[in-house]
Amino acid sequence: MLEIQGLRSGYGDITVLQGVSLNVNSGEIVGILGANGVGKTTLLKTISNLIKTRAGTINYQGKNLTHVPPSKLLNLGIAHVPQGRNIFSKMTVAENLHVGLDNVKKRVNPQEQLDYALALFPKLKERWNQLGGTLSGGEQQMLAIARALVTKPSLLILDEPSMGLAPIIVRSVFNAVKKIAQDGTTILLVEQNAVAALNVIDRLYVMDMGRMVYESQEMNDNELEKIKEVYLGAG
Ligand code: ATP
């Protein structure tokens, strides 16, 4: 579904991505793990063309994405939930979700999409008329994911959904992520919280200094042991 080859990008004179390759198959939850500052966010932003590709290719469903502006991605079925959530804090939950819907009105049935998102995150229904900025961190993350979901994406890109959340909330967000994938949306997920991510992902890549340094096969006990050695430093 998504095939990336030799991707290079960066900021000014700095090259952050040093030739990244990865692929995501339809229906998978693929995780990219890595420490602070290794280039995970830069990779997701390059996929969404928020940062220019300097070399390499990004193919999505056979289409070259490297020159597709971010605003056109929703119509191709790609939704990106950025790190830090970026919800509109002065708008209500309802208004935030309608902003998501405004982008795709012609393509989706708005009520169906709202019903789906609210069934997944019932808390948002309770907070319907509350301003985004007054929600808890977990609720803001749920709203950010819901706002992406109402656009009915084929590929959902999540940048550190666990950031700043208490463990119990992380679990509930990740359960929702799993459900979204079971319902047919492919997911590419960046995480520093490896333990939380390992519970839901089908396959993973480990990134270090702008490169993929490990690529897992299908997850099984053997693979998990290897990942612990490579990434978690526990044998
Ligand atoms: P984190 O999880 O902390 O966001 P990350 O793996 O996502 O880490 P990136 O945010 O992609 O890492 O950052 C990779 C490198 O690029 C870092 O060295 C960072 O300092 C640098 N960088 C990120 N944003 C910019 C920017 N706007 N201008 C210059 N350098 C940047």
UniProtKB/TrEMBL annotation:
Keywords of this protein's UniProt record, alphabetized?
Answer: Amino-acid transport, ATP-binding, Nucleotide-binding, Transport
Q: Does the keyword Ligase apply?
A: no
Give the matching SUPFAM superfamilies.
P-loop containing nucleoside triphosphate hydrolases
Record PROSITE patterns: ABC_TRANSPORTER_1 (PS00211), ABC_TRANSPORTER_2 (PS50893)
Pfam families reported in the protein's UniProt record: ABC_tran
**Which molecular-function annotation in GO is an example for this chain?**
ATP binding
Does the keyword section mention Transport? yes
Q: Where is the ABC transporter domain?
A: 2-234
Q: According to its UniProt record, which protein family does this protein belong to?
A: Belongs to the ABC transporter superfamily.
- Return the protein name: ABC transporter ATP-binding protein
Give the organism the record lists.
Answer: Fictibacillus terranigra
Q: What is the lineage of its organism?
A: Bacteria, Bacillati, Bacillota, Bacilli, Bacillales
